[in-house]
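Backbones bend. Our protein:
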Amino acid sequence: MVSEKILDREPSSVGDESHSTTILNVLLDNIRSAWNVGSILRTADGFGFAHAYLCGITPTPENKDVQKAALGADEFVTWSHHMDAVKLVKGLKKEDWRVWALEEDEHAQPIDQIANPTLNTVLIVGSEVTGVDPALLDLTDNIFYIPMRGQKRSFNVAVAFGVAAWVLKA
């Protein structure tokens, strides 16, 4: 199901909008919490992400809890639901999309190593319990992690997306 809302504005691009046509999208890989999905949609709108790919068991804005947490952002960030995220990403890569993931991984770089993307980019965030599907990680161009200073090894997925979105748009 694709959102039926027609955007009243052009999707925001990265960096100086007068010189850039780079589009940022987000892919949510099996995010269980409707509240986190809504929060991510709200944050995606705030940072000018154009589209959200909701994959696997990720609830869509048809869910009342997603709507409640999104506070209307689901009207501005277009979305689509895909059962097979791997198939989706393979298709996006054929269309020359850059694919980045936010995940703890032996190949991951600290998030402060992110450079403003110059190509259309999809950022993948995954389940708080199982992380991003390893088959998706194998398809990524870059993997980033957020260094942790406390005792916990990860942030809530919506918070982590907010940190990454801010870094991408900075």
Q: What stands out?
A: The two ends are 32 Å apart (CA to CA). Residues 24-169 form a domain with the Alpha/beta knot fold (CATH 3.40.1280.10).
